[in-house]
Amino acid sequence: MTTAPGHVRPVGAGHSFMPLVPTDDTIVSLSRMSGVVSHDAELQQAVIRGGTRLGDIGAPLAERGQALINMPDIDEQSLAGALGTATHGTGASLGCMSSFVEGVQLVTASGDVLECDRQNNPDLFQAARVNLGALGVVTEVRLQNLELYSLKRETTWMPIEEILETAESVADQNRNFEFYYIPFSGMGFQDIHNLTSEPPSSTELMDQNDGAETLMQLRDWLSWSPKVRELVLGSYLKTVAKEVTVAPSWQTYTKERNVRFNEMEYHLPRENALQAFREIKAVVEKSFPEVFFPFEVRFIKSDDIWLSPFYGRETCSIAVHRFFNEDFQPMFKAVEPIMKKYHGRPHWGKLNTMTESEFAGHYPRWNDFKAIRQELDPAGKFLNPYLKNIFNLAAG
């Protein structure tokens, strides 16, 4: 680290939409720092290298009788990258992945290897669990896990108004709950996961990648009338059968996503989210008839991590998407003010226009994080242009 020329940025899987990594100087790949280092069967904890892809954690943990407490719906990210940006799954009683971290090993700009947890360097621990790669390189993580468990996943298509009417109670009554809305259809589907002892099984599942292509074709064929498009699409979606899958947890959470897109996701106080969703739906369906990608809504438990978007509040996240070769900026520009109006904090890895002063207003421990960053890296070796901007800092 000390001999790397210029500024240094660690890179995981390159899944982020924001320019957290780009630099003209040195990029450090974590791809070869992969695998489970050790585990504690009594505490149900495991030490895992920072470059391990989330999709490569489930099987080796299962061999040790453990499973992650929760996972996001995409598993391509590196562990360090997912934690650095507060990546999350869904579940009103479950925090983001960073909330399951019990210890972090960090290599600083000076080459020092630091260990931190709740007792040892506790302030560094609170900063390192969501760190944006601004403190150093996360080489190992100690995760709190659970004993192996299976989940029953049920996916049901419903009119969006029915989903909205019951979303709060359904979120509280189930381990994992999220819902999606298909623009210009009046329909959405809810995904529910619960613990089960049933044997593995599965009904016929819809291919979500093929589904995205179909939605795009319907948009093109029926672009002359959004009302006819809603009638045709809504009528079809009402006929889609319920999907049920029983499998080990690590095989249940994630979905294969091969259709490229751009994404904006904000995390709102739970009490504001459904009203914000209704306003976003109205704006998109009034002004952007070309949109076909689903909206996604998830529930996340509060935590006490300094730069976690879930710091100090029960949260509901809303994500909107645009197909990768379409101009996302007009729609995102129209949607983002609604997210901000309802006190949303953006996902660190998803597109947003938040400024340093806005971030400082959202995070009570913002200046504490900056102070630790300055102490660990006074020369700004781990800064790139984006990080300099949001921390209002100059390079050393």
What report would you give on this structure?
- By secondary structure, the chain is of the alpha+beta class.
- Helix content is 29%, strand content 26%.
- It has two domains: 8-147 and 355-390, Uridine Diphospho-n-acetylenolpyruvylglucosamine Reductase, domain 3 (2-Layer Sandwich); 150-346, 3-Layer(aba) Sandwich (Vanillyl-alcohol Oxidase, Chain A, domain 3), CATH 3.40.462.
- It contains eleven helices and 18 strands.
- A nine-stranded antiparallel β-sheet has the order 13-14-10-12-11-16-17-15-18. It has a five-stranded antiparallel β-sheet with strand order 3-4-8-6-7, covered by helices on one side. A two-stranded parallel sheet has the order 1-2.
- A hairpin with a 4-residue loop joins strand 11 (176-182) and strand 12.
- The mean pLDDT is 92.
